[in-house]
Amino acid sequence: MKLLKIRKKVTCYSLKRNGVTFRRLRGDSDATIQHTARWTSTKQLKTYDMSEQEETFKIELVKRGLIKADEQHKKYETTFKRCMFCDFRNGIADDICNNCKRPLDRKKILDEQKNREDQIKNMQKEMEDYKKEMMSYLMAEAKKQISKEIEAKINS
Length: 156
Ligand SMILES: [Zn+2]
Known about the structure:
The protein is mainly α and 156 residues long.
């Protein structure tokens, strides 16, 4: 019984709404539509159409993670990928964060991090090798210098 009432209400609402759209397409003036639909003013009619469009638009934005959902729209909020770095909400289909351009995929992020760490390690190793090379070069030069000095002393 209750269900039947709700269903009837929904149907009436749908018919009313479709009626407005149909009349608009047919080119009826606001006043005519208003009269037929028994609304109190054309302003209310405009608000009705606008709010509907705004609502749809808002839901799309929320779904794509482009705006923060308010309490009413929380239910549409499931399809977004939050960036691990900057907390930006990206669309479900995005691979790269629209804000900071980092990959949104966790594995990709970890791979990138690992790659960066490897690069740092490699650079550190290169630095160490370079230092060792430099030291042995300096040692060799010092030895040469000392040998020269000793030779000079012996020859004098
Ligand atoms: Zn980001």
